[in-house]
Amino acid sequence: MTGRGKKRWLPTVFIGCLIGLAGCGPAQTGYETAGEQAETSAESGLSLQEQADDLAEGNDSGYREAFSGEQAENLLPEQRELILCYMETYYQGLAALESQDMSELFLPEAAEQLLLNESALDYVTGLRKMQRTDLGLADYRYELNVTAAETTRDETADIWLTETSTQNFNQHPEIDTVLYHIIHHFELQNTENGWKIAGHLQWDSIYWNLIREYWDWDSGTLAIPEAESFITGRVDELLTKAREDMESRGQQNPSTSKSYQHEYDRSRAVAYSSQWTGSRNEEWDDFSGRGGNCQNYVSQCLAAGGIPMDRQGDNRWMWNGAGNYTASWVGVDDFFAYAAGNQGSGLAASTDFSYYSGEEGDLICMGSETDWNHIVMISQVVRDEQGNTVDYLINSNTSDVKNFPVGAYPNSYQRLIKIFGWNE
């Protein structure tokens, strides 16, 4: 399915164009930004259900066209409406960077799930609002691939789907930011007031940061004692830490460059990183289901930029095929140690350069000083009108994103790894 932040004519686009950013509003002609649509829908005075009913009384073919995947045929029209209302409400919040009331979409007895989903949106919008750039949305579109859908005799439904979205931020609306393969799990219940959401989880770092202490991997269930106080406090805690981490980035002092004999081809490295987000190069192993593919991907990018494998000395970084590689090739902690400590032949890099001195093709490590757990490649530098660096757009694997503003990444503790070149 493709949802759009701009409205178009029914036969030519998917249903997300038609329901409006504030959730399930009727189609209008003309073109509006995402923020303008949010204002239009808010002024309509219609509830989410009333807007959905208005649309459902029209042509339902848009809904049938909206979802992809063989399992999409198992969705009832009312279930499609409900899921799309949820998605559009969520994107209204991202466009305006404001909280949203989702209570009409959830069962009255699903108060914990309602709070979790509203709080997850508050967390995302809070992260984006505190950045040095305007990360409200000028436009968006998304595709939903239904991977499993089952409706039981007791009128409950269990639905799994993956979302790939393209978001255009106000700071740089001409650039497509793509987030790939985000997993959603919806549990729906039919009531006398229509289908409602009994539960929804989104498998990404936003939800994981909120619930990881209370997620039971063995049973696949979530149980949060005193959920209201915990979730509200957790959002405040995460945003406070993110603000502190963001402020600390500007306090890092520049260090001296390392000497190198050969240049690093930044453009080739970035081109490779852009090509292999959302998919994998089959010439290399894929660690997506084995702890994450981010470092393996970044190592490939550096190799594409001309950095040769380092097979000598105590610090090594190399790949000799599946099952035959150094930990520094596939593990973030080990690569960070290699980049920080390598001398002589091989990679010439620095892990203590000023955060805002990065260039395209440099790396950003995320986690903590004792546990680096994610790494990304800078694809573009974002500068203000005075030419000062204020953010970076990055490419990454697991999770797969392209041209995403790294300042809004949920892993807020970040360090620049400056790549200079390499030595023989």
Can you tell me about this structure?
The protein has eleven helices and 14 strands. The chain is of the alpha+beta class and 424 residues long. The strands form two sheets. Strands 1, 2, 3, 4, 5, 8, 9, 10, 11, 12, 13 and 14 form a twelve-stranded antiparallel sheet that branches. Strands 6-7 form a two-stranded antiparallel ribbon. Helix 8 crosses helix 9. It starts with a strand and ends with a strand. About 9% of the residues have low confidence.
Q: Helices, strands, pairings?
A:
Elements: E1 3-4, H1 34-44, H2 48-56, H3 61-66, H4 77-96, H5 111-129, E2 137-151, E3 156-169, E4 177-191, E5 194-203, H6 205-211, E6 215-216, E7 221-222, H7 227-249, E8 262-263, H8 266-275, H9 294-304, H10 327-330, H11 332-341, E9 346-350, E10 363-368, E11 371-383, E12 389-396, E13 401-405, E14 414-423
Helix pairs in contact: 5-7, 8-9
Keywords:
single chain, 424 residues, alpha+beta, twelve-stranded antiparallel β-sheet, two-stranded antiparallel sheet, 14 strands, 26% strand
